[in-house]
Fold this sequence. Notes:
This protein has helices at 2-31, 33-37, 45-56, 63-77, 93-96, 284-319; strands at 117-120, 125-137, 143-149, 155-160, 166-173, 180-189, 192-203, 217-230, 234-237, 241-246, 255-266, 279-281. By secondary structure, the chain is of the alpha+beta class. It has a domain at 117-277: Porin. Strands 1, 2, 3, 9, 10, 11 and 12 form a seven-stranded mixed beta sheet that branches. Strands 4-5-6-7-8 form a five-stranded antiparallel beta sheet, with no helix packed on it. One 2-acetamido-2-deoxy-beta-D-glucopyranose is lined by residues 45-46, 49.
Amino acid sequence: MFSTKYIICTTLLLCWSLTVQAQLDANLKNANIPKSVSPDVPIDENVTNASTTSSTTTTAATTTTTQEPITSTTTTAKPTPTTSTTSTTTEAPSTTTPSPVPTTTPKPTPFPAPSVGTWNSSCIALKMAAQLNFTYETKENKLATGLYNIPSDAKVEDFSCENKTIQSIELMWGPDEAKHSLTLTFEKVNGSSVLSTISIHLPLLSDNFPDAKENETILMTHTKPEFSTPEKMSYHCTRVQKFNLTENIGDVKAKGVISVSQVQAEAFRVSNTTAFSTVHDCDSSETSDVVPIAVGIALAALILVVLISYLCARRRSTSRGYMSF
Ligand SMILES: *[C@@H]1O[C@H](CO)[C@@H](O)[C@H](O)[C@H]1NC(C)=O
Ligand SMILES: *[C@@H]1O[C@H](CO)[C@@H](O)[C@H](O)[C@H]1NC(C)=O
Ligand SMILES: *[C@@H]1O[C@H](CO)[C@@H](O)[C@H](O)[C@H]1NC(C)=O
Ligand SMILES: *[C@@H]1O[C@H](CO)[C@@H](O)[C@H](O)[C@H]1NC(C)=O
Ligand SMILES: *[C@@H]1O[C@H](CO)[C@@H](O)[C@H](O)[C@H]1NC(C)=O
Ligand SMILES: *[C@@H]1O[C@H](CO)[C@@H](O)[C@H](O)[C@H]1NC(C)=O
Ligand SMILES: *[C@@H]1O[C@H](CO)[C@@H](O)[C@H](O)[C@H]1NC(C)=O
Ligand SMILES: *[C@@H]1O[C@H](CO)[C@@H](O)[C@H](O)[C@H]1NC(C)=O
Ligand SMILES: CC(=O)N[C@H]1CO[C@H](CO)[C@@H](O)[C@@H]1O
């Protein structure tokens, strides 16, 4: 009589712990999917053209004509209401448009996602998409937030391959009088290759940053080992990774973030084939640790539950002198 109750109880607990484990597994599997989807957002050519033309032709001429393309873009941007507002006027349009709240959001056209570039030197092969988010000073001495995509057609300007422990590659783009550059330095530490430094030299041209101070140049670095990979393997990571960038000029401490995605990088290459070596994925090592631990915890909990219910049932039936058996 009592034992049947406990058997039912035990099976219920068993089912519960199994579903918990299943949910854990599902969560772990789903965890990486949204991250890898986000960098694949296609670049809307019209949005880029609309934004560049609107910024260059703001000669205070006709405000009605500039608003027309904006409303046309909002219809396309409607399905994503969670577009990150990028420091462009946020409160001002609310007074002019008394229409309901969800249908507003006219200005923040999404900044295009960076496109993936491929670069190589004799010792470094690199593939990635990168976007900068940084603060800069405006003509009115205010701080503004700027977004900038590293162009995929940047050229390999310089590289250093002679040293067996430190190698670097420098990408360059932009007009001759204002060269932009991104330098990546790789180091060999304990038999692993790491990206030790990212340095950025970014002159703010009036085409992209019309409100920036004249001749303002952003110099930012990130010095922390990233992309750690065993020797003779290539680092691979599809999801977006954000690295903090700092600028230390005098007492000014500007800050920025570089977001890299779709990364495949390999330094200290010896063969001169262009193909990457065996992939070391940023997530495979993590998940292969996390999944067994989660499964182990779930199984341990299950065993504990079964044991406790069995002992309880046994004690009860013993105290009642095996009545129900
Ligand atoms: C983008 O612009 C082109 C030419 O201006 C036009 O043909 C096309 O329909 C536009 N696409 C969208 C999605 O607005
Ligand atoms: C990069 O790879 C291309 C294609 O294999 C090759 O022609 C070029 O020489 C390489 N560049 C450097 C700097 O090694
Ligand atoms: C850029 O950085 C600022 C400040 O950290 C943040 O508010 C903004 O959402 C970021 N923009 C993007 C597109 O990541
Ligand atoms: C590589 O560079 C490091 C640091 O600059 C230096 O200590 C080392 O001697 C160099 N190695 C070679 C082989 O040039
Ligand atoms: C290299 O490995 C040694 C021993 O395993 C360790 O003490 C040292 O901290 C490691 N160095 C780095 C930079 O990780
Ligand atoms: C900006 O650079 C140009 C060309 O080098 C120079 O003529 C001009 O004086 C500079 N402006 C400022 C404010 O430094
Ligand atoms: C990057 O900067 C942000 C804001 O300053 C800070 O909260 C975060 O901890 C930093 N991340 C790293 C890895 O230093
Ligand atoms: C590098 O490539 C050249 C010609 O493409 C070839 O002659 C040479 O043997 C290659 N070196 C190695 C180490 O594979
Ligand atoms: C749709 C459209 O007009 N796209 C153009 C945007 O601008 C780039 C370069 O400025 C052109 O290559 C695209 O054709």
